[in-house]
Structures are given as C-alpha cells and as structure tokens.
Amino acid sequence: MANYPQAELKNEIEHLAEEAFHRHLISGYGIGESGDEFQIVYEGKPRHFSLEYARNFLRQLISHKEPAHLLQLDHHLDLNQSAL
Fold first, then answer.
1. pLDDT score of 69 more than 50
2. Which of 61, 22, 26 shows the shortest CA–CA distance to 47?
C-alpha cells in the first residue's frame, strides 16, 4: 500500500469515518487544513492524524471499538497542541 493514490486513500478514510460516525464511535471528522491530515473527533477531542494513520485508526476502531492503544503513539497531534 506504499503507493496508494492519495485520492483513493482519502475516499477510503471518508468512507470509514462515515461508518464510524454512524456507529457513534466518533463524533466528527474531516480533512485537515494541510490536506494531508485527517481530523477525527474521538472521545470529545479533535485530533489530527496523517492519512495513513487515520485509515488504520478508523479500521481498528470499527473492528474492535477500542483503539485506545493507538492513541498512546506519537503519530497524532491534538488541535490544542497544533499551531493554527
């Protein structure tokens, strides 16, 4: 998946995010400001993830409903920590 086209990746992430949203696993989502990030509102906190990380996070969330271990990694930035 290293050469996964970015448009296809974004489409897959949008689909996964919509599914997670309708299952009430997340409370919001969208493309980040830079276009190569995806914002997911999880447990009331908006977070920016890389596209690859967002896809993996959402897949894990949908299949296991408990991706808390993913949030332990340093691959995300909370909006409160990001310079806007």
1. yes
2. 26
